[in-house]
Structures are given as structure tokens and as C-alpha cells.
Amino acid sequence: MPHRPPAEIGMPLAEVDTPALIIDLDAFDRNLRALPQKVAAHGVKLRPHSKTHKSPIIALKQMALGAVGVCCQKVSEAEALVEGGVRDILIANEVVGAAKLRRLAALARHATLGVCIDDAGNLAELEDAAIDFDARIKVLVEIDVGAGRCGVAPGKPALALAQAVAGSKHLSFDGLQAYQGSAQHVRNHDERRQAIERAVEMARDTKAMIEAAGIACPRITGAGTGSFAFEAASAVYTELQCGSYIFMDADYNRNLDASGKAAPEFEQSLFVWTTVMSRPSAERAIVDAGLKALSVDSGMPVVTDFPDAEFVRASDEHGKLAVKRQTEGLDVGDKIRLTPGHCDPTVNLYDWYVGVRRQRVECIWPVAARGALT
Amino acid sequence: MPHRPPAEIGMPLAEVDTPALIIDLDAFDRNLRALPQKVAAHGVKLRPHSKTHKSPIIALKQMALGAVGVCCQKVSEAEALVEGGVRDILIANEVVGAAKLRRLAALARHATLGVCIDDAGNLAELEDAAIDFDARIKVLVEIDVGAGRCGVAPGKPALALAQAVAGSKHLSFDGLQAYQGSAQHVRNHDERRQAIERAVEMARDTKAMIEAAGIACPRITGAGTGSFAFEAASAVYTELQCGSYIFMDADYNRNLDASGKAAPEFEQSLFVWTTVMSRPSAERAIVDAGLKALSVDSGMPVVTDFPDAEFVRASDEHGKLAVKRQTEGLDVGDKIRLTPGHCDPTVNLYDWYVGVRRQRVECIWPVAARGALT
Fold this sequence. Notes:
2 copies of one chain form a homodimer.
Chain A: E1 20-24, H1 25-39, E2 45-46, H2 56-64, E3 70-72, H3 75-83, E4 88-94, H4 98-107, E5 112-117, H5 120-132, E6 137-142, H6 156-166, E7 171-177, H7 189-212, E8 219-222, H8 228-232, E9 239-240, E10 270-281, E11 284-287, E12 302-303, E13 309-314, E14 319-323, E15 335-339, H9 343-347, E16 352-357, E17 360-366
Parallel strand pairs in A: 1-16, 2-9, 3-4, 4-5, 5-6, 6-7, 7-8, 8-9
Antiparallel strand pairs in A: 1-10, 10-11, 10-15, 11-14, 12-15, 13-14, 16-17
């Protein structure tokens, strides 16, 4: 069973129980609108990644502002999105194993679904499942454009898979997934740009090779919050998958712009609300948010409103702050905001979003695909 | 809503969907029995920490083997335990804020509850809540015995709080919490022993000071899986809080014994079951378990059955293995076991345990207090 929400609609933020996952709705709304505006001139489509938010409510808000659909990573996430009313989903990932492929094919009877492949055996199993459910599934061949994770090499290996898909009745070859994940958090602007330039070149050449073989390659999909401006302007990518832009996090906030400044293109709208639960000394404050309330894989959270306090260590249910200077507002019982180091896995720790506007709770949304692992 | 379990009772392990949280039930049963046997000679009580497993089913198994009750960290965990039939719980942590204290006092009408304090203002609020619900609550004063987290200093500050508790009608002073958390993962055996010797001394002296003031101090509680042998033999600690011993993890397995060997006292019984989802090259395999299936705060998981493969990087939904030598069993679609770096926050990512004996699913248990944050 999910736990009870830590808040009620209309409650002042100060009364929201902790730890809680807070959305600053004004900043969130501005982020939602900003991405479409930033890329409008390029005529590129938006398909935001829902692995960030895991919420069909938020996915439908993105689509209401022009997104053609959303991405997700798992079949179980796609199931939660369809259940919540989303009807165009790309699983921007490989789906492996008969059990998952059955669920994918069955779901494709109820929504437009796409999926990535990088293996001929997996493709054959995908086709079997599609035939079994008489389903139509869009297939993207994933190419490795420098991230060193999944995907075949650009060029001939991608062409071979595209040809195999093109011969199928139930599967349609829709193009290439060319996501350069490892470029997203490269701090230096020029290095980030150069990594994407190399990805663009690989995607362009592979697309040309596939088209030369007589197979249409209408979609090149990729990009993230750290790099989307480059893909948008590339004239090669047709679809952007940015996800984190709606929330941001401490790690993305550290990326530098062309002038060498940390000047994020979006606002921080996601916070963890936490209580000071112990104040053993002037130099130490303990908060009630630790490893089970914050993902620390990309570094510790930032103590949002207290520059003189540093979050130095997380244990399971405790966060330890080093307080460098006498500071009001950090007494036992005081509640403060933390900016998570990495938003996606932090969101996955919560059952509920608490949406706040002008210090008052305006909405409580389930993190519907929280824990959607399979 | 929790997600569907990734398995069915009676299913072969090979068919269990991934990622899944697997308990090797034979090893788990041996761990359950081993701890009581190891400390039987010392006459010390066991109160295992349920923050590891978050399951009343497992808590009741521990109590059936002699544990006097369990610990937890949060009121919401205590609520899930009481709902599952557990009737003696120590919240081995401070509970701060009126909303949580109301829930704690209300729950104390339905089970024997204890809680820690380290602040006079918090104690006054706790007493107000207990009076409001006419509840009886056991109170332990937490002293900082070297962990540098919560707790007052040993000696006079602890005595002052004990005296304040002793004057209350609804609260009973039950003793000291003296948990040396930072000693648990000190690799070297002698250093670990010395850290606990210092903790023992502080607990002994503080207890003597409280008793000299005419207040009984029957309980000294603490210890973890890394140090329990020292506290058990101390003749000062009366109750041990070990939790991880039932599952173990890669981090605890690295602690050294007196001869300098990594020779864990318990068996690894918890695994993440994962599928090889991409095999882009001979040197790289990608599995479907990343940051949302594994906590990496204490290091990457170990690739349990493949010494030639190393888990080198986790992204949200992918794990990257470096494969050092040609290895069978790591093809696309193959399922393998990972040993989590840190069991507690890994368990918290799952809705279900899949209990396996002789390669067959024997039980599916909910992680009842998964996400119990408040």
C-alpha cells in the first residue's frame, strides 16, 4: 500500500510533514513553458522523458504544451502512463525477455508504442510477441553515439537491424535513437557541444546509409536537459527527450554556459522538505532525510536556503549538516528545503508529490510509476 | 498502487522477471538462527533493526527465535509493523514535530512503544502527545558514543534528560541508546573493537551517574552487524539492534576479522536478480538494474557469480559491467545475481521480496514499510 500523503490540500507549507517531495508550482510551470519556447525556432518535436517524473498528470501537461508524447524506460512505466491517459509513448530503451515483450505487445493494442532495439535475437522475440497480440509497434534502432552504454555501432550494424525491422509486418522501422547520455553532465560548454557534434555526425551518416538502402528513416531521437540546444539546432535530430528540465537538480545546476558561468536554463522547482531533528552542537544539525529520502549518486543535496550549512553525510534516515556560522532557522523542529543532487532517483523514493504555490499546498499527485522496475 | 510482483509461487527462479529482490531462503534461515546462537552465552537481549527489511513477516520470524521486539526509525514504519502484528517496537531515533508525535502516542495505545530523545523541547512535546492520548511510552535518552550524529553528550546532559523523563507520569525512563554507527564499517577488527570499547565506557559511566541520582537505568541498547560481538560481551549493553545480519551486503562482507581476513559472520542471502539487456561488445554488458534498483551509496554491487565481470557504473535504469574475460552466461536475455553494496536502501526500492529455495519461488512478501518516510 502507498503511504498516506504528508499533506492536505490548502495546508500551509509549514505544516507539511517531512520528508516530503515538494514542487514549487510557479517555477515548475515556467519550466514547462520554457522548453517549447527555447526550441520553437528549430521545428523539432518534444517527447519529454517521463522517467524523471513518473507521473501521467505531468506527462499530459507536457503534451498539452505541444509535446507529441513522452518517453519512458520500462514496460511497467508505460503501463502506468497508459492507465493515466497517455496515448503516445516511446520506451527509449531495450525491452528484453518474453514476459516483458508480451506485456509490451498487449499494451500496444491500447496506445501508440515505440521501443528501441540493438540486438537481432531481441528483435525476433519482439516480432513474435507483436504477432501473438496482432499489435503494431514502432521500432527505433539504438546507436551508440559516444555514451558507451546500449546501442549498436553507427553505420552498417544499424543498417542491418533497420533492414530486419523493415521486413516485418507488425513492426515498423521509425528511425534511430541516438542519445548521448554521457555528454549531459559534462560541465564545460564547448566540450559538451563537441560531444554532441560527434553524435550528430554519426546519426546523420547512419541515417544516410539507411536511406541509401531504400528505407525511410523519419525519426532521430535523443538529447537531454544538458545538451538539447545542440541537438535542436542540428537539423538532424527530429525529437528531443529532455526530462529533468521540469525539476532540475544540484548536478544539472552545475553545468556551465558558453561564458563559463553556472547559469541553468531552467529553475529549480523540486525540493525535499525536511525537519531538523537533532541539534547536538553549534556546528552540527541532523535532518530527517537520508539515503531513503534522497539519492546521493550525483553528490549530496544542497541546503537550499542556508549557504552557511553544508549537507556532508547521509545515513539511511539521517542527513548530517555542517553549520559553519551561527544561523537562525536550524533549531530542532525547524523545516528546511534541500535541493536533491539527482532528481530522477530521488523522485522514485516517494509515493506523492506535494505541489505548493505561495507557501500553500495546491495539489497532491501520486508518483504513479514509482518503483516501476520491470 | 504497488506494482505486480515479478514472480508467482512455485515458479523457477529462471522465470522470475527482473529486476527483482531475491532472498535465498536457506541462507536467510541460517542467518536468522545464527545471531541468537552467537550471543546466547552473554544473556543479552536481541531487538533487531527492522529498517533493514521493513517487513512485519520477517520481524515476527526474528521474535519467534527469541528477539524481544524490533527497532525501527520512523513512526510510519512502526505503524506498518503494528498493522502486521508486531507488538513491541523501539523507534531507535528521535521523533520530532507535533504531527508525528500525535501518531506515535496514538499508536502506543496498541503496542508497547519506545522512542529516543536528545532534546528537552522535544521531550515536552512528546509528553503533551502522550497525555493527549493517555498513552504510556518508554523513553531512552540517546547519547553520542562516537558516531557524531544524534544524541546528547554522555554524562550530565544525559542525566538532566533522564531526570526530566523520570518526573513524567506518561513517559517512563527506560535507559540509554548508545549506538556507535560509525564503527560498523570500520574494516580493521582492532579499530572496530576499540571504538566500541570507548562507547561501552561512555555508556557505563553515564548509567552509573543516572543510577547514583536514584533513577533506574535498566536498558542500554545499541550495536549493529559490524560490532555486536563486542557489545554482547561488554556486560554493559543489555540489548542488541543488529539488522543487516539477515541479508548482508557487499559493504559488510568487506569487514575484516581478528586475523585480518574478510570472513563474514553471516551469509549473503539478499540479491538483485537482473537481466543482461544489451551486449554491445565483448568487454561490455548492460543489465537492467541501475540506480532505481540498487543503492550505490556504499559502492557498486558485486556481480555475484562472475568474478571476471565488474559492475562499473549505474545510471537510472542501467548497470554497466566491464567483462574482463570471455564468459558464458552473460548473453542478451541471461539473468544473473548482483550482491547489493548496501542492503537497507536497496530493499527500500522494491515492493516485493521473492523468496527462493532450491531455485524455486517459495514466498512473495510485501516490503510493507517501503517508502515509510514520515
